[in-house]
Design a protein that fits this description.
Length: 100
């Protein structure tokens, strides 16, 4: 785990599947545990994600009184996007400018 200011980077692991190639494993649960156990340390959680499996996590974060922001690269499921209080979309041009 690396920490810079108020940002924590959690690293999962890569596993290789004959059908799917390389996939990350363990990251979803790391994000979920951190979002809930560190909720006393933030008022608004900003999440970079695109998987609807996170909807219950975001609902739980909101149920304990926190605001939520999703940062995403479209397309993402509409039900996931609508779960958040605020949304920030990166199109290809914005993403390239941000990465420069």
């Amino acid at each position: 785990m690396a920490m810079t200011q108020h940002i924590t980077v959690r690293l999962g692991r890569l596993v290789e599947s004959p059908k799917e190639g390389f996939r990350q494993k363990g990251v979803d649960i790391l994000i979920s545990v951190d979002a809930l156990t560190k909720a006393d340390h933030y008022e608004t959680g900003m999440f970079l994600m695109g998987d609807r499996d996170f909807i219950p996590l975001i609902e739980a974060v909101k149920n304990i009184g926190k605001k939520t922001i999703i940062v995403y690269y479209p397309p993402i499921p509409i039900d996931l996007k609508n779960t958040f209080d605020w949304r920030i979309s990166f199109d290809e041009k914005a993403l390239k400018a941000w990465l420069e």
